[in-house]
Amino acid sequence: MKTISSYIRVIGFITLAFIVLELTIDSGEQWTVEQHPFLWVILSLILLILVSVEICLAALQSILFRTLKAEAQERYLIEQEKRKENQYKWVKDLYVKLTNSTPITEESEIILDHNYDGIRELDNSLPPWWVYSFYATIAFALIYLVRFHVLDDYTQDEEYLTEVAEAQKAIEEYKRTAKDLVDINSVVLLTDASDIKDGKSVFDSNCVACHMKDGGGGIGPNLTDEYWILGGGIKNVFRTISEGGRDGKGMVAWKQNLKPAQIAQVASYVLSLQGTTPENPKKTEGDLWVDPEASIQDSTQPQL
Question: Does the pTM exceed 0.85?
Fold first, then answer.
């Protein structure tokens, strides 16, 4: 819009110049631009004036815009500062209430008369937060005295033993639910159908090459009879799978490939094959395994 208005003014001035020339020259005389060279001078002056005016207007507009922008920014910063002061005013008020400090401008009113080598002392009052905290410690001490020394509530030793027992229960519960923490000492025979199924899946993927699919034995021993080379029972089978068989001629250790929970599952599945009849059973190897825990249980049963 500013450019269009400038063009209109330039055209208007040129038209005005031609009208003036027409009025100053005899109307009966035929004239051309070459016959009146002062026309170029007039037009040049008009254009120079117009360009100068446009430059001055543009400069004034730029100065005015920068001035207004600076004022707007200053007003915005002042408003932001006021808003920030009002936002945190409650913090300052709370600080003043808690400290009850005397402003620096008023410290001359609380200066004591004495001085030490030119060092003066202020007669400040104790901060309220410190006073209230001191009262709170007195109340706590009284409650503690009555509870533990008058009413004989629990002692520190009793509290320690109680917390240790609770922690031990939490550890046992965590170990019971976290199957990957199972080891040779905590492993138990799994009888759940899902565990046996998962153990069979591990067995089919890793063990059938040596023990056959039905556990009858091939390169490895027969897993369906009661004879074991490194001992039967869940703990021995778990250890054999985890740590490997006999040096140089036993199976490899699977603890690097299987998780403890998987070893417990496949060990439980292997024990579930006890008493089954494989298609081509391998002859017995090792020693007859008798579960010592089962013997103890049998000896505790009443005799009829």
Answer: no
